[in-house]
TrEMBL record:
Entries under InterPro entries matching the protein: Cyclodeamin/CycHdrlase (IPR007044), Formintransfe-cycloase-like_sf (IPR036178)
Gene Ontology molecular function: catalytic activity
Originating species: Butyrivibrio fibrisolvens DSM 3071
Protein name in the entry: Formiminotetrahydrofolate cyclodeaminase
Domain of life: Bacteria
Cyclodeaminase/cyclohydrolase domain boundaries: 9-185
SUPFAM superfamilies, sorted: Methenyltetrahydrofolate cyclohydrolase-like
Coiled coil: 54-81
Length: 208
């Protein structure tokens, strides 16, 4: 790819996503949404730092902001990594079935394609943890943004998982497939609920 997907404008990204092209796809969209959820947490933190009312949390807020910047950058990198892993997989699927190397090449390409969305899930776990904390220590005027971040994080997590499962089902090595699926399921089982809890708490506060 000549241009980085993350250098597209919002209009360009949405247009490419809508077009009859392979990338960006669901994985890239999941990573981008995860990055946006992290950005909303950072926004809440940036509007809280330096306020006398929240002075007791200043050191923790600064630490969260530093970590959040790293996670947001990593998730944006995963937009690119997910796209880069798709082309070799597409090529591997096009190898004639009579080719003796097809199975090996397809297996490797599939394993490579699983790595980005699974890493997205690991990163988004932490996004949700930081949103949980920001809900408690962030400025009350930013609470709706924290809730929005949680809603996006839950959606990004579920979206990334589908990009794991679509590939694990075709792996020849079922032990590896089971291991990947168990990790993804474990993250889903705990963190989708945690993201929903943040959203529900924020919603309840706003509707009192």
């Amino acid at each position: 790819m000549d241009n980085k997907i993350t250098d597209y404008s919002c209009n360009e990204f949405a247009g490419k996503l809508a077009a009859k092209v392979s990338v960006p796809g669901g994985g890239g969209a999941a990573a981008l949404v995860g990055a946006l959820s992290m950005a909303l947490c950072s926004m809440a933190g940036n509007f809280t730092t330096g306020k006398k009312k929240y002075a007791q949390y200043e050191e923790e807020l600064q630490a969260i902001l530093k970590e959040a910047e790293d996670i947001r950058t990593r998730l944006l990198d995963l937009v690119e990594e997910d796209a880069k892993m798709f082309e070799p997989l597409s090529v591997a699927y096009s190898i004639p079935k009579e080719d003796p190397q097809r199975v090996e090449k397809l297996e490797k390409a599939t394993l490579d394609a699983i790595a980005p969305p699974l890493e997205m899930m690991r990163q988004i776990k932490r996004v949700i943890e930081l949103l949980e904390r920001m809900k408690e220590i962030g400025s009350v005027i930013m609470i709706s943004d924290v809730g929005c971040g949680a809603a996006l994080a839950g959606a990004a997590l579920k979206s990334a998982s589908l990009n794991v499962f679509i590939n694990t089902k075709s792996l020849q090595d079922r032990d590896k497939a089971d291991s990947f699926e168990q990790e993804a399921d474990s993250i889903l089982d705990e963190y989708v609920a945690r993201a929903q809890n943040v959203f529900d708490d924020v919603n309840a506060k706003l509707r009192k």
